[in-house]
Amino acid sequence: REDCAVFFDARTEEIRTVPFPAGLALIIAESGKKRELASGEYNVRREQTREAAAALGVRALRDVSSATLAARRDLPELLRRRAAHVVEENERVWRALELLEAGDGAGFGKLMNASHESSRRNFENSTPELDLLVSIAQQLPGVLGARLTGGGFGGATVTLCERAHAAKVAAELSRRYVTKTAITPRVFVCRIANGAA
Q1: For 95-119, what is each residue's pLDDT tens digit?
Q2: Residue 138 to residues 7, 132, 143: CA-CA distances in angstroms?
Q3: Fewer Cβ within 10 Å of end Cβ, the chain: N or C?
């Protein structure tokens, strides 16, 4: 639905629409580096998360809380970081629902920033280009949050900003990125519209 975010729980198949805070825009910035999910690293991450879940005695990492994970000192450090990203990302999704329902765009933006930092440090599925786009966006007036989107390893970022600043944010994001990388990103200011079906 227009001006709504969609929550989909893949396990229960629950679908919920949540009003998106008024006055905000989403900006998609393509890094110019093609995403290569089929290459080894994405598959390695999937296997590492499966291994972590098995070590924790659960079917899926969504069945583990961050407190439970913190108490499990026996998990190897690499698997702990991979699991921490997934577990905390799931917790961020539930918190994001609460923040969106409360109309708290600033809080939602902070979760986006935390998500990207976890992708960068714990899951290591970001790239220098994605990190640069996020870093530039986070410095611009009117920006509430930014993160990579999709599976990582290239591709795009999504930035949450005040609608009044969106055109300037998009232009400045592009300008600074070109200056640092000599790559011209494709940048789109978006608005949530009704679905096509």
Answers
A1: 999 999 999 999 999 999 999 999 9
A2: 25, 10, 6
A3: C
How far is it, in rounded angstroms, from Cα 158 to Cα 188? 10
Reported as type and span, the H/E element at residue 42 is helix 40-56
Give me the sign of the Cα torsion angle 15, 52, 153, 91.
positive
With a CB cutoff of 8 Å and minimum separation 6, the contacts of 138 are 113, 145, 146
At position 113, the amino acid (one-letter code) is: N
Q: What are phi and psi of 107, to 5 degrees?
A: -65, -40
One-letter identity of residue 106: A
Query: Which three-class secondary structure state does DSSP give residue 155?
Result: coil
Catalogue all structural domains in the chain, each as residue range(s) with its CATH number: 4-190 (3.30.70.890)
Amino acid identity of residue 8, one-letter, is F
Task: Tally Cβ neighbours within 10 Å of residue 121.
Answer: 12
Quick one: tokens of 187? Answer: 């940048």
* Half-sphere exposure for 64 (CA within 13 Å, toward CB): 28
Element of type H or E holding 79: helix 77-101
Phi, psi of 110 (to 5 degrees): -65, -35
If DSSP codes are grouped into helix, strand and coil, which group holds residue 174? helix
Contact of 143 with 137, CB cutoff 8 Å: yes
pTM over 0.70: yes
